[in-house]
Amino acid sequence: MSDEQLPTHSAFRFHGSWQEFARIAFPNLLLTIVTLGIYRFWATTREREYLWGKTDFIDEPLEWTGRGIELFIGFIMVFLLIGVPFIVIQLVSQGLIFQGLPVLAGLLTFAMFLSLFYLTGVAYFRALRYRLSRTYWRGIRGGSDDPGFQYGLSYMWKWVVAWLPLFLMVPWAMISLWNDRWNAMSFGPHRFSATAQWTPLMKRYLLFYLVPFLFFGGAVIFGISMAASGNAPDALGDTGMAVGGILAVVALLAFYIIIPLAALLFYSKYFRLAVGGLRLHTLEFAFRARAADWVLFFLANIAIIICTLGIGYIFMPYRNWKFFVEHMEAYGEINIDELTQSQTVVEKHGEGLLDAFDVGAI
Amino acid sequence: MSAFFDVAHYDGQKAVKRKVEVQVVGSQFYVLENEQRTGPFAFADVAYVTKQGDADVYGLAGHDGWRLMLSGPVPSELAALLPAPRRYGGWVDRLGLGKAVIAFALTSAAAIAVVLFSPQWLAPLIPDSVDDQLGDVLVGDFGGRFCHTPAGDAALQKLVASLDDNPQDLRVEVANIDMLNAVALPGGNVILFDGLLKQARSPDEVAGVLAHEIGHVREKHVMQALLRQMGLAVVLGGVDGNSGAMVNNLLAMSYSRDAEAEADAHSMRMLGNANISPVGTASFFDRLSQLDGSEGAVKYNVEITSYLSSHPLSASRKDAFEKSIVKGKNYKPALTPSEWTELKTMCTQDRKVKSGFGFDFD
What we know:
The structure holds two protein chains of two kinds. Chain A is an alpha+beta fold. In chain A, 61% of the residues lie in helices and 12% in strands. In chain A, β7 (186-187) and β8 (190-194) form a beta hairpin. In chain A, α7 (202-228) runs antiparallel to α8 (238-276). Chain B has helices at 76-79, 90-95, 97-122, 128-139, 150-163, 194-199, 203-218, 221-235, 241-273, 279-291, 314-323, 337-344, 346-349; strands spanning 3-10, 18-25, 28-33, 36-42, 46-52, 55-60, 63-71, 171-175, 182-185, 189-193. Chains A and B meet through α1, α2, β4 and α3 of A and β5, β7, α3 and α4 of B.
């Protein structure tokens, strides 16, 4: 009786409206300004409550149970445990330089950098854990018993390995860390399994990687051919000016359009592969957005922000979530009777670390 | 007596949605499903979770994922027992949005006012020992870059003694760094850079600059700026990175301009007491204003005292010093020609001093 066969349309559906969201976002903006930013933790929470509540998985909505105070406590903890010590370390290393001990100051700064690097990894992990543990569906939540300290180490060495061969192993690090993160997560009684492959990602990555070289190569060849034919640009007068103008336009195009485009091409493939490798018990997931969807999405975002003179920025959480949900798919079946409550621990503080490092990710 | 209400329910153990009856008995209630009765539960443990479509969703303390979902109008007998819906968060809901915005705005303004104005009263309360220790940590022996010769030290001492009544709690040094600069640091430390001595055309010019830096020490500007910066960092800590830093810098800058004017006033007073002509200082600023075109602030600061930067335009400072000239007064030079030569060449003569190479602030 309680075997839920997934319907033919996507298992995820979003039915919010931006007008409703505006009634949350504008008071949020006002309250955030008059509280010198402190309200933003409660603002985020209200927005998530709305977005989660307007998202159906199969037949029932998601529910966000995180609280503003949790995010606030997370922020305060980071401020006291990381912010204050780092200010002190900076002062001390400044003093060490003054006293002629630059090596010691350098070591201290390096240690500070290493621990920041480590904590960034831990932050990514714990933010995902926090979000899953606060997401309920039919009274059941997700989570993880892993505190993420081990993941922080993986994060460090995998990125170092990614950078060493001239950044060529970046796709491997991204996919492998995604898998590490999700393999530690669970929903209800079931553990996620993440088995995404990184090799299919290499073609797009190489494209992105080579674009600057191709442009540079093109410019060099152009220059050589000009010199070889004996036509120095200034000898051509107006034609030379025109050629120079075209070259400048092409260079601008490269920087503002082609490189971001290549990056999007890569990222859309990454996200499809990463989500596609995700399983939860008998459920499989997919992300349908292709590069063209991402491009349109970003162009629309930019247009909205420009046309509203920046105010449209407050709708970005809405746009991001809508884009994410509308392209998510799930296949398989769920046995509702089998889906029992998660036994993972629930921390009392939110994603302060991630917030402090200013990285926003789903 | 007891009353019954039909509601939807998740027990938080399984994902199955149940249709149950709530039986209210006084301040407690039971949940009934097919002759099965669970409870009693206290209404005091019931918490408002969220609004889901037209349903209000309630949770129960200590029961993870336990939910009651009341659709449509809630009967008034039940509504009276249930907690009020939460919209913005505790305080805002209690006050109402309008009043809360006003209250928050006033509180924020008060907090900023305290942070901006209190350092003036607080700085003198900081014990000298703390100030001295901070100075020792920051300055120390400056990596062996302080220049010393018996005759040069004597000349510097004479200059300081003529400009300040309590020279014993000042520590004025010449650093072997080729920069047109001078700084006041915690603990009564004043550092003149060798580049400034080399550029100066008369001891009177150096006297004016030195008296200016001593003014920063005597007016407790260094400690005030430190306190103000720390306070602003805390108060604006909740604001997102860039905008927070911008507001912070703007506020700090407006204060440092006042501090510069105060230090200039102190300098003119002390020059007057010492019977040293302000003409030298005026011509020094005149040359500086030609150097920087008086477009921006004088390049007269280093990174560590950037909180004391943004000096008033050199040209206007020149005018101020010129106006302080008392006509017909019998000024005498700050140092004798031989003393001035000793001071100017102190760093060249000192063979043990380390050079400023590799000590680049800019």
